[in-house]
Amino acid sequence: xxxxxxxxxxxxxxxxxxxxxxxxxxxxxxxxxxxxxxxxxxxxxxxxxxxxxxxxxxxxxxxxxxxxxxxxxxxxxxxxxxxxxxxxxxxxxxxxxxxxx
Length: 101
Known about the structure:
It is a single chain. By secondary structure, the protein is mainly alpha-helical. It is built from four helices and two strands; from the N terminus they run αβαααβ. Strands 1-2 form a two-stranded parallel sheet. The longest helix has 37 residues.
């Protein structure tokens, strides 16, 4: 009986410590994502993952931004994003304060 109690106690300790580590990892990931969004994003250098953090920009639109940049060269202004298919005034308004070139 004592051996079973020790095994159960050990299992419970392991489970709770694993949950704590997983929660800390999740919190750190969320903090990193929020930090990336709080900082200004350089649309001439940002990758798909970073661009997709913007409001109204998913992976497909992020890919379109990078494709446009690769085919046409660097953006001269943030407003040049309007030349990218799928990017309209509303998306630009939602994100303009977070963008830079």
